[in-house]
Amino acid sequence: MQANIKEIFESVQGEGIFVGEKQVFVRFAGCNLQCAYCDTDYYIDKSTLVLKEEELFDKLRKYGAGIISLTGGEPLMSIDFLDSFLKKYKKYLNKKIYLETNGTLPDELDRIIDEVDIIAMDIKIRSATNQINQFDINEKFLDVAYKKDVFIKVVFTSSITEDEINSILNLVSKYNTPLVLQPKTPFREDEPFMEIYNKFYDKHKTTLLIPQTHKFLNLR
Q1: Contacts of 39 (CB under 8 A, 6+ apart)
Q2: What pLDDT score does 131 carry?
Q3: Among the CATH numbers 3.10.20.30, 1.10.10.60, 3.30.1360.180, 3.20.20.70, which is that of 2-216?
Q4: Who is most buried in 91, 94, 179, 216, counting CB within 10 A?
Q5: Residue 39: CA count within 13 A, CB half-sphere
């Protein structure tokens, strides 16, 4: 069993409720979406590493951070590899598994939910991504994800619609999850961040406004 991996590195988490915490990032190649704002290289090309399970284990155990962030791309696109790898090696790594996902592959998540500790689930909204809204699939994903420590992240712009706001609020309210609003990078200082934030906060108090902090620090 092997996987296509773009890079492995140690840094601090720049997004979400674990911002500032040191993690080991494993960036998987491949994604089932093509978001307009995507800022990562997830395509399979000559820079892609092809690693066997034991090779990834050998690399990961050398890092000191206590959390491994599976990111991408979309890591659940490599579900056969992840399923096998986590069941074989997680206990030997002695690290928490943090899954960064676009929240559109519930069946794949179900296969590894017992091996995952933290789920950072993006809701990809059309006004920011140019992808169709998939709130029904997001809900199916949360039916699985809620069993673990999960929060929802939404990258947004000033073009966010009232229908998108209400649909997101319905999901976070149903599952009582923290919500992170992340302005699309780069952004203008005159964008109505507080106006949009308050529309969420007024109905869901566990709402945070957090930009991509690693961009300000010039970190990966």
Answers
A1: 185
A2: 87
A3: 3.20.20.70
A4: 179
A5: 9
